[in-house]
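Table S2 (continued). Query chain:
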Amino acid sequence: MIAVVDSGGANIASVLFALERLGVKGILTSDPDTIINADHVILPGVGAAGTTMAQLRTNDLIDCLKSLTQPVLGICLGMQLLFTRSDEGNTDMLGIIDGTVTKFNKKSCAIIPHMGWNTVSFNKPHPLTKDVKNKSYFYFVHSYRAGTGDYTIGETDYGLPFSAVAAQDNFMGCQFHPERSGNAGAQLLKNFMGM
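Corresponding output:
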C-alpha cells in the first residue's frame, strides 16, 4: 500500500493519477497509523514551506514522518521538507537531511520561478534512478532550491547547481515532478515502488 501524505499540496491529484497509470492505488491520508503501516510513503507538496509544515504539525505528522523506516519519496516541496530549514519564511523543516533550502538568486537566474523542462545529471548510482538515462528531461516548478552535498543523487543547473534528486537512508526526494515528467518520471516512480 502506498500512502500519499495529505500535506495540502496542489500536486496531490496528479500524483494519485500517475500512480493509477502505473497500476497502483495510492491512499491519500493524514492518519499517522495508516502512514506508519504503509509499504511506501509519498510526501507531495506545492505551496509554501511554512504553511505545509503547519499542516503537518496540525495533523501530528512531524514525529511520524521522521520515524519512518520504509521508502519515503518527497516531491517538489516534499523534497525540500526533508531538509533542516528553509529560507522561505525562515521555516524549520523535518531535519532528516542536513542542509538549508534557499531562494534562487535573481543575479544568476534569468527568471524565478524555475519553471519548465530541464535535464538532470545523475552523479552516483541509486535504486531510485535505475534505468533512467543520464541527462533525462524532467519538469520543474520551484523558486527555492537545496544545494548539493553528499546526499545529492542528481543535480540540475539553473544559474547555480542544485540537488534535483537527494537521498538519505530510506528518505529520497526529487525537486522536479515525476508525475508530470513523461517516461523518465514514470520510470523513477516504478523504481520507488519496487524498493
